[in-house]
Design a protein that fits this description.
This protein is α/β, with parallel strands linked by helices. About 50% of the residues lie in helices and about 5% in strands. A five-stranded parallel beta sheet has the order 2-3-4-1-5, sandwiched between helices. The longest helix has about 35 residues, at about 235-270. The structure holds zinc ion.
């Protein structure tokens, strides 16, 4: 599931520290996707990474004071190019990526690293994304690409797969958004009660995923209009958009499962007697304590495996409805609550909901 359970405690300063040691060890990657506010925290991190590469003070990189550091902070360093959507409605155009390509293959002014920063990289259209992908596949030496995005699910998966992902804490914590509260409604009490209670929870998740798929489809209408306005017509376009719908839906489904997993992880921490401060959903500590009462660490870990397994099954295109129902029936509840033996006959027929 590619979830780093400890990420909720990572601060931007720690992330920069990691970049420092990668840089010192000559292990810096050539492309990073920085998930965060492209006008806020993500941009600050990008500036710091660039300062690390360009700073002339070898003893205290980045010093923040030398001309390289100062020019980097102002986005006027000659060896860094900052690209952003031209207009609110138009996104990042293929012409801008062509500029990036020309730039990437030029020699540097200062003889060192060259950097390309894409602010709101998710705003690239398909043509621009594919063009960038070619450069990411065969990157020029000593060139770093930083893609900044607060909507990484809107990026082409092929582009994402070329980048190392760095999530800023705001975007890991994702506090209080609508989706999170809907997922938590499902998470609270998940695994307890009788068969019908478990099935009710499973249905709630299935319904939530259906709703998400509809939302993605609705949003895709806009992609089509956008694509047509770029003259990206042709038979491929519908297929490409179908692919984007699926990719975006899967990204959002992953987020839902990740939140469920983080909830179970909190239950496990609670069952292991760990401090409240280590919880991901600290604001729901009371509810977590109540739900974890009587739950053993082994049971909690088992529930985590069930979610991981559910995610793996969904990625193998097994029918969503039956995968989710089966998983929910397997959740272990504390021994104080009656746990009914479940026969496979409890499973409803799958099929609707599809993939
Ligand atoms: Zn400096």
């Amino acid at each position: 599931l590619n979830i780093q359970l400890s990420t909720s405690n990572i601060e931007p300063i720690d992330i920069l520290q990691k970049f420092k040691s990668s840089f010192a060890g000559g292990r810096i990657g050539h492309a990073y996707l920085i998930v965060g506010d492209p006008r806020g925290a993500a941009a600050r991190l990008a500036e710091n990474i660039l300062q690390l590469l360009f700073c002339s003070d070898t003893s205290a990189r980045p010093c923040g004071k030398c001309s390289h550091c100062l020019r980097t902070a102002k986005h006027i360093h000659p060896d860094a190019i900052w690209i952003e959507p031209i207009k609110k409605s138009r996104g990042i155009l293929v012409e801008q990526i062509e500029e990036v390509q020309r730039y990437a293959f030029q020699t540097t002014f200062e003889g060192g690293w060259k950097a390309i920063v894409l602010l709101s990289a998710d705003r690239m259209n398909i043509e621009a994304s594919n063009k960038l992908l070619k450069t990411l596949e065969e990157p020029p030496p000593r060139t770093i690409f930083l893609l900044l995005s607060d909507q990484p699910e809107a990026l082409l998966p092929t582009v994402v797969s070329r980048c190392q992902r760095v999530a800023l804490p705001d975007f890991v914590a994702e506090s209080g958004d609508a989706l999170q509260s809907e997922v938590l409604d499902i998470a609270v009490g998940m695994g307890s009660g009788e068969t019908e209670d478990k099935l009710r929870k499973a249905c709630a998740l299935i319904d939530l995923l259906k709703k998400i798929r509809e939302q993605v489809k609705t949003a895709s209408g806009e992609w089509l209009i956008q694509a047509e306005s770029y003259g990206e017509a042709g038979e491929d376009i519908e297929e490409i958009i179908e692919g984007r719908i699926e990719a975006e839906y899967r990204e959002r489904r992953k987020r839902v499962l990740r939140l469920l997993l983080l909830w179970q992880r909190d239950l496990m921490l609670c069952a292991s007697g760990l401090a409240e401060s280590s919880l991901f959903f600290r604001s729901a500590a009371g509810t977590i304590h109540a739900q974890a009462a009587g739950l053993t660490k082994i049971q909690a870990m088992n529930n985590i495996s069930i979610i991981e397994n559910m995610y793996a099954c969904l990625n193998q295109h097994l029918p969503e409805t039956s995968v989710i129902e089966r998983a929910f029936m397997q959740f272990t509840c504390p021994p104080c609550l009656p746990m009914r033996r479940l026969s496979s006959g409890c499973r409803r027929e799958a099929g609707e909901g599809g993939t």
